[in-house]
Amino acid sequence: MVCVANGLDRKKLELKLQAMSHRWYVTGYTDVLYGQYCPPNSAPEGDVFYFDYGVVAFWGCTKAAEQDVLRGVVTDCRIQALARTVWWWWWLHYNTYL
User: 48 with 39: CB under 8 angstroms?
Assistant: First the structure.
C-alpha cells in the first residue's frame, strides 16, 4: 500500500481507467475503485485498489506493475499530492502459518 496524496480525484481516475480499458478491468464501490492490472499483451497479473482518501493498495503485483500504476495512472489524479519523499509505504505479506 502507498499513500500518495490527501485524496484521489475519483472522476478523473475513472475516466483515465476507462480510456485504458484494454488494459484495466475496473469496478466501482462506495469509497474505492477496484481493478486488475494487465500489462500490455498479457493476462491480468494483480489487483489494485484506489481509495478516495489517497491510498493505492496492490495485491499480487510486481514492483514494475506498481510503478506503472503510480506513474501512468495515479499521478495526474492526486488531490494535494504528497512529495515522493513523503509517500507512506506499507508491505504486507500473507502466509498460512499461524
Answer: no
Distance of alpha carbon 13 from alpha carbon 50, whole angstroms: 9
Cα 40 to chain centroid distance, Å, stands at: 17
Q: How far apart are the first and last CA of the chain?
A: 23
Contacts of 15 (CB under 8 A, 6+ apart): none
Determine if the pTM surpasses 0.85.
Answer: no
Cell (9 digits) for 17: 481507467
80: left (phi over 0), alpha (psi -120 to 50) or beta: left
What domain range includes position 22? Answer: 2-89
Q: How far apart are CA 27 and CA 71, in angstroms?
A: 21
What's the structural domain count of the chain?
A: 1
Going by C-alpha positions, the residue among 49, 63, 34, 33 that lies closest to residue 71 is 63
Write down the pLDDT at residue 78: 92
Asked, for residue 98, whether it belongs to a domain, the answer is no
